[in-house]
Amino acid sequence: MNITQESTQGRNRQRTELKDFLRTRRARLTPGDVGLPPGGRRRTPGLRREEVAVLAGVGTSWYIQLEQGRDITVSPSVLDAVSRALRLTVVERDHLYRLAGVNPPLVSGPEPDEAELARIVDHWAPSPAHVIDQHWNVIAMNHASETVFGYSRTEGETLNCLVAFFTDPVYRGRHRHWADMAPDLVAEFRRDAARHPDDPGFGRLADRLRRASPEFAELWARHDVVSRPQRLKAVDHPWLGPLRFEHSVLHMPDRPGVRLILNTAGADAATAEALERISAGASGRLPVGAP
């Protein structure tokens, strides 16, 4: 089977799924669910196709072709109208977009619950963990993360890990391979910015860093994009010594753009021991800086 045949089969499967998906969503609704009169006896359960078309404000023939999986032109606004007519959830709407060959819109999640996020990062102790939003602002951080990486908080100022990486001498100085990490971080941030073209926050942050850091400005001008959810990270701590972490980024599905940044010792015994010392100091069992 050649590539063209595989592509054709894939499109055919997608159209079949689109047809079945719309038919089953339509079948689960009654006229009363959407404010329509019963309209007499029905041979099959659910709304009629023409009723969905009326509710969505589209032509009946167009909707029939959509449900049949025909190769027709669709737009986000029309798919949104069909989604509302069929009372689709956000997940179902995104699924409809993909089946129709259209990228689903990015949506903002609920405002982060700071208490809940604090519990999440504390749960990962003694491993350093923090949570960032889509603009890379730190919105929760455990004691180990603050101690290991030297994050400094200023009252009333938002802590941003990308700004800290390029402009905070303490945070920057602790990353042994800072110069190797910097290109990837900027490329990851550019990828995130491209996913939110209508969000001015990314442009403001990039402009701020271009003014504050020549290194960032040079890397930003490359227009590189990468995705590295896992990497090794080496830290030189002033009193804990050399530390090695397995760095992972975990996305939180119920909060688009919010990510948990986790650093674990892995098989490095010295790092694991150092983290236990931090944990003991935080709990009052041992001075944090004790040898």
From TrEMBL:
Residues 113-155 form the PAS domain. It comes from the Bacteria. InterPro entries: Cro/C1-type_HTH, Lambda_DNA-bd_dom_sf, MLTR_LBD, PAS, PAS-like_dom_sf. Pfam families: HTH_31 (PF13560), MLTR_LBD (PF17765). GO terms for molecular function: DNA binding. SUPFAM superfamilies: lambda repressor-like DNA-binding domains (SSF47413), PYP-like sensor domain (PAS domain) (SSF55785). This is Transcriptional regulator with XRE-family HTH domain. It comes from Nocardiopsis aegyptia. The lineage of its organism: Bacteria, Bacillati, Actinomycetota, Actinomycetes, Streptosporangiales.
